[in-house]
Design goal:
about 170 residues; alpha/beta; Rossmann fold; six-stranded mixed β-sheet; 3 helices; about 25% helix; globular; binds guanosine-5'-monophosphate
Length: about 170
């Protein structure tokens, strides 16, 4: 049986999402911000984040598939859902569940830049260092983890565990 080792409970997550939302609200005051959530993993984080923001925002989603093993991405990335809001000359904030190698975000940032946005920044629930291969700047990171496979609060293993309120380390 896989073992779930708690990392952050609902209360910890509420506090860290509120904290990052305060920073974003302050940094983007009087600007027109478009949040782009990366499906599927970021859907829970994004839905909490937008409700903590005190500035008006627009929300869109993008989806990519990466072919690899169950627990690691391969870097072989394919876009399966395009953005639908026009981001040309707009401030864009990408909202990701977890950054591991950074390959997914590098791919998405390159894709977005083809639309000539004014700025593109990154907000990640979790910043996982161990396997980072891309030089990618995470502007807003809620929490850092060294390694391991994380589930809960939107993050899955074979589509399971997304509905857990807390964040866990999955031991297979
Ligand atoms: P990267 O391209 O940065 O290596 O990986 C990013 C994507 O891989 C994330 O959006 C997520 O879908 C998946 N991923 C990487 N590490 C984990 C993890 O620890 N747990 C889960 N559930 N997904 C992960």
């Amino acid at each position: 049986m896989p073992e779930l080792i708690p990392i952050l409970n609902k209360n910890d997550i509420d506090h860290m999402v509120a904290r990052v939302a305060r920073r974003i609200s302050s940094d983007y005051q009087d600007r027109e911000l478009i949040l782009i959530g990366i499906l599927k993993g970021a859907f829970v984080f994004l839905s909490d984040l937008v409700r903590h923001l005190t500035i008006p925002v627009k929300v869109d989603f993008i989806r990519v598939c990466s072919y690899g093993s169950d627990v690691s991405s391969s870097g072989n990335i394919r876009l399966t859902k395009e953005i639908e809001i026009d981001v040309t000359n707009k401030d864009v904030l990408l909202v990701e569940d977890i950054v591991d190698t950074g390959l997914t975000l590098s791919y998405i940032v390159d894709y977005l830049k083809t639309f000539d946005p004014k700025t593109v920044k990154i907000c990640a629930l979790l910043d996982k260092h161990e396997r980072r291969s891309e030089n990618i700047k995470i502007d807003y990171a809620c929490h850092e983890v060294d390694k391991g496979f994380i589930v809960g609060y939107g993050l899955d293993y074979n589509e399971n565990y997304r509905n857990l309120a807390g964040i866990y380390h999955l031991k297979l």
